[in-house]
UniProtKB/TrEMBL annotation:
This is Enoyl-CoA hydratase/isomerase family protein. Pfam families: ECH_1. The lineage of its organism: Archaea, Methanobacteriati, Methanobacteriota, Stenosarchaea group, Halobacteria. GO terms for molecular function: catalytic activity. PROSITE patterns: ENOYL_COA_HYDRATASE. Belongs to the enoyl-CoA hydratase/isomerase family. InterPro entries: ClpP/crotonase-like_dom_sf (IPR029045), Enoyl-CoA_hyd/isom_CS (IPR018376), Enoyl-CoA_hydra/iso (IPR001753).
Length: 232
């Protein structure tokens, strides 16, 4: 089940199936996609109910799929992860407890991953003959490097919070990850959007720098008076 709570500037999206460690069915994924795509907020905070962030795909569902159904489930998970990654909102994952498989993959699609000291992260699919297919083999090596990605994926090893931070799976550790979202939402939404588009840009350097300069000029024009009042 996906719960949505709209506050001032922040949409909180919660995986709320604690008895199954917030494992996700296809219906859950579609609800998550809608919650991400339809928000007018500048910040999304993604969290899990109970002692886990998200265990990924509901394996009871997976076990009942044929080949075509499994491919469709993978593509749905990829689509949802891409919706998170492409969101105009800054998406902050608050990871308290276990993020496994698809849960980790959805977290990897977020802009910022904040873990508590109790966070644990891993891709255990290999231990039962599978792997993370919601974009995991794409995003994991980009974030931690190919060597670490292969070691994590091929061993199924679970990382504690400090090691996950050192590996780059987590952006930072906080006792209350929501405080990061609450800090970000205080900043101008247009500046946040520019930062996302610039940092995500994969064009050649010259093109990136040209777009960077244009965006900087636009923001100075928009916020020049406020800057002058603060620093003038």
């Amino acid at each position: 089940m996906i719960e949505v709570d709209d506050g001032e500037g922040i949409r909180t999206i919660r995986f709320d199936r604690p008895t199954r460690r917030n494992a996700l069915t296809p219906d859950d994924l579609e609800a998550l996609e809608s919650a991400v795509a339809e928000t007018p907020h500048s910040v999304i905070f993604l969290e899990g109910a109970g002692p886990a962030f998200c265990a990924g795909a509901d394996l009871d569902v997976v076990a009942g799929l044929d080949r075509d159904g499994a491919e469709a489930f993978a593509r749905l998970g990829q689509r949802v992860a891409n919706a998170i990654a492409d969101s105009d909102a800054v998406v902050v994952a608050g990871i308290d407890g276990a993020a496994r498989g698809g849960g980790l993959e959805l977290a990897l699609a977020c802009d910022i991953r904040v873990g508590t000291p109790e966070a644990t992260l891993g891709e255990p699919g290999v231990t039962f003959g599978l792997f993370g297919a919601w974009g995991g083999t794409v995003r994991l090596p980009r974030i931690v490097g190919e060597g670490v990605a292969l070691e994590l994926a091929c061993t199924g090893r679970v990382l504690e919070a400090e090691e996950a931070l050192q590996a780059g799976l987590l952006s930072r550790l906080e006792d209350d990850p929501r405080t990061v979202a609450e800090t970000i939402v205080e900043y101008p939404a247009d500046t946040l959007a520019v930062l996302q588009s610039r940092i995500r840009d994969r064009a050649d350097r010259a093109s990136q720098e040209e777009r960077e300069a244009i965006a900087f000029g636009t923001l100075v024009e928009s916020h020049g008076e406020a800057i002058a009042r603060r620093f003038g």
